[in-house]
Amino acid sequence: MLSTDRWITLSETASTNSLLLDGNYPSGTMVTSRRQTAGRGRQGRAWSNTKDQSFLYSVLLEFDELPAAATAMPLMAGLAVLEAAESCLRDLYPAASTQTSFFLKWPNDLLIKREGTIGKLAGILLESRMEKGRFRVVTGVGLNWSAVPRDTEPAPFAPAALFPEEFPQAKEPEQFVAWLIAALNRRHYDHPIFSAEIKEAIEDRFFLRGRKLSGPFGLASCEGLSTDGALLLRLEDGSTVRYDRTDEEYEIL
């Protein structure tokens, strides 16, 4: 079970992921920072953040071997962040929560829909290495808490904040840790198993299901997820293929 007993809070660091992956910290250590100077996302992209208004979090887990659910861990982490965001919004602003929806976009994005507009709320980055016979995994979460960064790269969905200006009481991003730890523990993230229950919970919020996609696979329709968290795509010739190339880009048509 994760807890705040091993929680490091910082005002600034280069990267919360790098701090844990390169440091000598025990499994279960987590870190939050008010600002990152060298934050990164998938494929080495820079992750922009707004000082004091972004939730920047990483947690280190160690395993005796590569978890069977390793492919699905970004989605499992995303589900926990989604459920934490739902609970946090519902607890702080019950009325607003009924008008807000959240979705998971494969492989590692969390989207928010508010007043008919969909934006990118958060990104998940997993980094790992084998060290002294142990498999070390760091899960990083970058969430737009009360503002969005200005210097972002062009993307299909513009950044969106969980608590924009009309939500003045939600000022401290660190408070989100309580909701996130509860969600991670509820899904047993420290012993990840991509169960049928978790797969169903993800697919209930899965943004790509039924959508047309274009990518290295050609044109396809997303059928859902495989039993290990990869995409199931129906190609133009009617065949269904498993697609797990997170290093490649695809476009939603």
From TrEMBL:
Protease among keywords: no
One Gene Ontology cellular component annotation held by this UniProt entry: cytoplasm
Pfam families: BPL_LplA_LipB
Coiled coil, from the record: none
InterPro entries on file: aa-tRNA-synth_II/BPL/LPL (IPR045864), Biotin_CoA_COase_ligase (IPR004408), BPL_LPL_catalytic (IPR004143)
Molecular function via GO: biotin--[biotin carboxyl-carrier protein] ligase activity
Key words, A-Z: Ligase
Residue span(s) of domain BPL/LPL catalytic: 1-192
Name listed for the protein in its UniProt record: Biotin--[acetyl-CoA-carboxylase] ligase
